[in-house]
Amino acid sequence: MKMKKKALLVGIFLFTILLFNFSISFASASTADNSFVISGLNEKITLDGGDDDNIDDNFEDFNKRKIEVDLFENEATIQSIKVGTKTKDLIRTDIGYGESGVEIQIRYKSELEADFEITFGIVFRDLIEFIDTDFNGIFDPEVDEKIQNYTLNDFAPISYEKTVIQGNNFLHHLRIQTVSKNFTLDLYFAEEFTIVENSLITPTQAKIDIEILNFNYLNDSSKIALYTSLDSETSFQRHNVTEDEEIGYAEKEQNIATIQNDFTGFYSWNEIGIINEISQNIVVSEILQDDIHENGKKLYLCYSRGEKIYHASKIGIEGLLMTEEFPLFGLVLLLVAIGAISSIAAYSVHYQKKSKSRGKVEKRTPIEHRVLKSQRSEPIILFDSKLALQILEEEDAIRNLYDKGDINITAISNDFNETIDNLGFKGNEKSEFIKEMLSLRPFERELILRDMLIKSQ
Questions:
Q1: Which residue segment(s) compose the domain that 251 sits in?
Q2: Does residue 360 surpass a pLDDT of 50?
């Protein structure tokens, strides 16, 4: 009995170790958060990635995308398709520039044959020179004094270059710049994780670097704001912590986000910019009603006065980075392991309950008893000698007895019978009492009988 119980415990223990190791392996293949943390934007750090982006190679391979860039007059289309999984999705970015500024529209669909499930965009329209009357660093049309409105509408042809990140994976760089070169947007699309200007770019987003150079200020104490329109079928919400910050891919970011069909589109910006080669805080307004579109929204990216202003931002879709698909065989193995553990645990509970129940019975009716004679009734047969002899005569008798588990052997003295007779039991009372007494140890029987005799006198 004890050996079987030990075997069960050992089996459960081994199965638990197997399942634990299996779970650890699964978890290591399924972690897409703090396993690949960048500890600082201004540090070049490598851990287990083969390149310098600090991203696990397996995770990186699984999220690689193939990018195609098509250029037209005053337009560009960038299509990004995932290549690491059987199911392909599509992120499409359309860029247009002209009299209304620079418009960037993002669309996404989770299957190539499906309709787009989220569409949103931003438009960089004007540079506004203003005097910060209330000294809060933010342009407020109702409070601050507007000095001039510089419309972004005169652009040089777009430039495009493609560079190798590693292997057959590329970084795509598009530059949109006004003819005066006062305003420049550098857009980067990466087929795999890569670092550009100390910022990590994931394959599901685009990096947008804003540069304002040699702006013609009309006032000696003014600042400048970039008027940005927001376009979405649903509302935008502003967040002080971005998804990249939560994962560990970025620091000191804020964003605005819009949700459609359970997909989240975002435009984020770094809270720190470089103005005249000095790091300074960048202040961004709350989401406001747009001046141009009745139901549109806008915000102002506000910068301190400077001859050279550089500010990093990003646009993309959240929640698309995926861990390696769990193979069907692995899933089946996991379910089998869980089922085995459950079965063993259930059997163990059942076995223990059954053992306890059988233990109680064995205490009441030990396997071997003696033949007790009574002066008032026929002998009470509590032991079948023929059955015992048959067991002992069998082949491997000792082993068979051992396999039967614990065996209780009870020996009694002749005084026991005499004492029982003196107690004056009636009918079946004597038989039941003897059975109960035989389940006790000798000194316990002696104490009970002595106490009963004293009380009966």
A1: 33-317
A2: no
